[in-house]
Amino acid sequence: MSETPILQLRGISKSFGSVQALADVDFEVRDGEVMALVGDNGAGKSTLIKCVGGIHSPDSGEILFEGKPVHINSPKEAAGLGIEIVYQDLALCDNLDVVQNMYLGREERDWLWRLKEPLMEQRTAETLRSLSVTTIRSIRQPVASLSGGQRQSVAVAKAVQWNSKLVILDEPTAALGVAQTRQVLDLVKRLAEQGLGVVLISHNLQDVFEVATRITVLRLGRDVGVYEREKTTQQEVVQAITAGIPTKVAGIPTTTPELAS
Amino acid sequence: MSSGLDVAAPGIGLPEGDEAEEETGLWRRVYDNIRTGNLGILPIVIGLAFIVVFFSFKATNFFTADNFNNIIQMAGLTMLAFGVVFVLLLGEIDLSIGYLSGIAALAVAEFQLPGSGHAYPGLVAIAIAVGLCALIGGAQGSVVAKVGVPSFVVTLAGLLIWQGVILQVLEIKGVIVIEDNLINDLANYYFSANAGWIIAAVITGLYAVGTLGGVIGKRRAGVAIRRPLLLVAKVVGVAVACFGVVAVSNHASVPRGLPLAGVLVVIFLVVLTFLAKRTPFGRHVYAVGGNAEAARRAGINVARIRIIVFMISGAMAGVGGVILAARLNSVDLNVGGGTLLLDAISAAVIGGTSLFGGRGEVRSALIGALVISTVSNGLNTAGYKTGTIYIVTGVILLLAVTLDTIARRLQARSGR
To answer: Which of A221, B231, B335, B390 has the smallest number of Cβ neighbours within 10 A?
Structure first.
């Protein structure tokens, strides 16, 4: 765990007009860990990962990937580095089947420009098997006919299929029932076990405490602190989310910590 | 042709075991397809069969070889409808194709005109006409894709503009007669009986070889082959259709033999189906139509896909326009007008292409055009007037879109 973190953000700031979404945020993820990114609505979680994913470019600050400074200007460049983001709304095409979605935008083709369907189907089956995604009846059924958990699993599998090194999951369990949440959390753990860096964005501290190695808290566009899962409590994290730590939040008057009961 | 809809046992883990899947495979598939809004071509093929049987009783001269060759003359309309399918797959619309086909007719007539100073060989004139329409389509598509003006408005403007251009040119010239034989042959050439048989054999052979190649590829990759019996049935079906068409058209009396235009339709059907279903480009068209945002995030250049699709739509309008002009051997003020545009869109929709994007097949254009032509031809032979034809076509269109909408609602409900 002592080697260079796979992703390091230093002093990232980003404004949209007069709204400062991120102010001097530091963030890091190591290989093989699940780093949870938590915070209230509008804390800047999505903006932060969009900076990593090449959708926004930060106004200032630097991004280091595998120790080297990088400029990520498009989702394609992010993917080129090995960074994959699974967005909240999944970004799957309902009218395409599982295999077609898994290879969307990166289809294998031969010299005649023909899609190599058998190859893609075989590899999709392999990927899903390696992630123990076993509940999908057929990988040739349209994604529209899958359950929420299955769709999430496909979206995650799609992200990790490309030898990615860092996978960012934006609220992967938000719309799921109990059993399906379990399915997805198991998948998240498996990703980290396979040595990937995983960023888990979630509102649900129960989920976070179940799978995360460390937890970064954002509040009003600033990072409040990083907590080791083993050495903290949900109470402490809730306090950081809602009240912040007075010394770290400049410009905000010290507030009375509201402890969650 | 069915790769997107197949649902049966692939290689991945089935908790219940494979036997259950085998037994229920067919019903599951039918159920899944209906549940996810893929009604397939079954309803419309049944409808077409019903129409044919109906008119066979209604009009004595309907079910004859001569009349069969009349129906196959809908080639021009089918070409336009092929282009419409691609535009609809994106969830867009192209209202300019009617008069765009008129522009192609005008161009092809103008550039073959002897003594005009720009008389080119037929093939060159055709290439100019189709290329011009592709360019216009691309320009309209660029406004849609890059600027973000709704395609309905852009192509509605196109409809007016190209109609205006046609009127301005032909008001002076009146009628341009097409004298180039190659151009006229597009719609008026009929193969000899033996050539017809050879063509049928070649098409069947290529289809069989292609199917076999697919099976070999799957076996090599260790992927399950779905419903091998259906593949055999499809090859047999294609053989029967090809030889059947040739047999009937060889029996016609006046223009005897297989029409070249029919063969052109089949060639475009094959090429465009390949483009839509077997290439990354086609896959991206479906993806953009299904979820443009997902496509963009997957790294697909959505604007480029949109522009190319409008170019295809323009080019197909061009091809259709040339064939329609060739059929009349001339171009006059009515070119590209009438019900051509609405028939082409109706054909694609009746054939099962969704107006909402992401669902449909190239072949649906052909099936839809067959329905429209059969109905209008049947009503004509039975002695009905144009008004009746419009009303009946309208009712069929309404039925088709209603089916599509219901299917879509079922799909939304099955979501999660």
So the answer is: B390
For residue B281, which residues of chain A lie inside 8 Å, CB to CB? 113
Q: Are B159 and B99 in contact (CB under 8 A)?
A: yes
Mean pLDDT of B90-105: 96
Coil, helix or strand at residue B34:
helix
| Angstrom distance (rounded) from CA A36 to CA A38 | 6
Annotate A169-235 with DSSP letters as a single string: EESTTTT--HHHHHHHHHHHHHHHHTT-EEEEE-S-HHHHHHH-SEEEEEETTEEEEEEEGGG--HH
> Quick one: which of A218, A212, A213, A207 has its CA closest to A240?
A218
Supply the DSSP symbol for B224.
P
Residue A34: phi and psi, rounded to 5, are -105, 110
Could you read off the pLDDT tens digit of each residue along chain A, which spans 261 residues? 457 889 999 999 999 988 889 999 999 999 989 999 988 888 888 889 889 988 888 999 999 999 899 998 887 888 888 998 888 776 789 889 999 999 998 888 888 888 988 889 988 998 888 888 878 888 888 888 888 888 888 888 888 887 788 999 988 888 788 888 888 888 889 888 888 899 999 888 888 999 999 999 988 888 888 888 888 888 888 888 888 765 544 554 444 444 444
- Nearest alpha carbon to residue B302 among B316, B288, B283: B288
A129–B10 CB contact, under 8 Å: no
Order across the sheet with A83-86: list the strands.
A83-86, A166-170, A197-201, A34-38, A214-219, A222-228
Q: Whole-model pTM? A: 0.84
Q: Supply A241's token pair.
A: 């989310």
CB contact (8 A) between residue A140 and residue B299: no
Please give, rounded to a whole number of angstroms, the shortest distance from the CA of A257 to a CA of chain B: 40
Closest approach of B278 to chain A, Cα-based (Å): 5
Which domains does chain A possess?
7-93+162-242 (3.40.50.300)
pLDDT higher than 60, residue B415: no
B283–A100 CB contact, under 8 Å: yes
